[in-house]
Write a structure and sequence with these properties.
three-stranded antiparallel beta sheet; single chain; five-stranded antiparallel beta sheet; Thiol Ester Dehydrase, Chain A; alpha+beta; 10 strands
């Protein structure tokens, strides 16, 4: 797909309009040049040490969540190229434990950009450093807001979808956003 010329493209049920501005293509007409998902991809690796673990020798969930937030923030920063702040963590699943001495791998990338907010997906794997065996241990979705130096929200660059997997993650992020918004409405009615 050529993103250098003005065009309209259909991406799995949603239209992304590409407009020419100052010789550059700007998706969604917000004046910002779109950036592909691949530019936000981040991988972090750490070894699990005893101080990171509980009495059973498994990494603490809070330690994993801390690393998830850092990995997700780096992906959001790479995409937005501005300060980002964590707005919410939708969901964290702990599927398998990570033992002391194993490696913890965190893979993150931007799933979708709304206006000032970005959803980042993080997949956490454990790796046995002696055998190379990997296990999916944790998944999380973290929402960030792109802010200026004074902390005021501002538009983030649109996301360019390059693969079928990018499009699937983009669609799924839209569903999760609808659920977040509905949840916030329910909470505000209770107050």
């Amino acid at each position: 797909m050529d993103f250098r010329s003005p065009a309209s493209i259909r991406v799995e049920g949603a239209w992304l309009v590409l407009q020419k501005k100052n010789g550059k293509t700007a998706p969604n007409g917000n004046g910002l040049r779109g950036r592909p998902v691949s530019l936000s991809k981040t991988e972090m690796v750490e070894v699990v040490l005893p101080q990171d673990a509980n009495v059973l020798g498994n990494v603490l969930g809070g330690r994993v969540m801390h690393l998830v937030d850092i990995s997700a923030a780096v992906a959001a920063l790479r995409h937005a190229r501005s300060h980002v702040v964590t707005a919410s963590v939708d969901h964290v699943d702990f599927r398998n434990p990570i033992r002391v001495g194993e490696l913890i791998l965190l893979q993150s990338s931007v799933n979708r950009v709304f206006n000032t907010s970005l959803e980042v997906g993080v997949k956490v794997l454990s790796e046995n450093p002696l055998t190379g065996e990997r296990k999916h241990t944790t998944s999380a979705y973290v929402t960030f807001v792109s802010v200026d130096a004074e902390g005021r929200p501002h538009a983030a660059p649109p996301l360019i979808l390059e693969t079928a997997e990018d499009r699937r993650r983009w669609r799924d992020a839209g569903v999760r956003r609808e659920l977040r918004v509905a949840h916030e409405k329910r909470l505000s009615k209770k107050k």
